[in-house]
Amino acid sequence: MDGELRRQEILRQIQESDTPISGTKLAQMCSVSRQVIVQDMAVLRASGYDIVSTYRGYICREDRKAERIFFVSHTDEEIEEELNLIVDFGGMIKDVFIRHEVYGELKAVLDIHSRREVQEFLNEIKTGRSGPLKNITSGRHYHTVLADSEEILDAIEKELKDKMFLL
């Protein structure tokens, strides 16, 4: 399979998948090395595709119409409730970031669309290899949330406020 056909197949795979696909899996599917996949992703991004690498693999972002940043704070025990609230109302959690007085802005891509992905994220945190980014700033953090409409974002904002997560 030549490079162009391989990139078309990679793009089709990640666009049609409901979950991220790892570089290793894509490499196996295309009978190439993982490094070739990394290079192919760079070519696809340069061609205008919004491909993101998450801790679970590659995804092609959906075309959402509305985006808002929420400034929130909560305990570690409330992470699941906060994230589930957002996805239950139809939001997609694009990222989490903090503004640190010394290090500046620190950001991590999440791309969480569903309760199942919330559970996968929480399982990664529970391994203990790393803690939530919010803990660096005493619980205060931001989420960029995408949705199909401003009305959905308004409903998410109201619910975050009612649960006292919104700052």
From TrEMBL:
- The Helix-turn-helix type domain covers which part of the protein? 6-59
Top-level division of the source organism's lineage = Bacteria
The organism is: Sellimonas caecigallum
Q: What is this protein called?
A: Transcription repressor NadR
Spell out the Gene3D superfamilies in the cross-references.
3H domain, Winged helix-like DNA-binding domain superfamily/Winged helix DNA-binding domain
Return the SUPFAM superfamilies for the record: Putative transcriptional regulator TM1602, C-terminal domain (SSF75500), Winged helix' DNA-binding domain (SSF46785)
Q: Which InterPro entries match?
A: 3H_dom_sf, 3H_domain, HTH_11, NadR, WH-like_DNA-bd_sf, WH_DNA-bd_sf
Residue span, 3H domain: 71-166
The record's section on PANTHER family has: TRANSCRIPTION REPRESSOR NIAR-RELATED
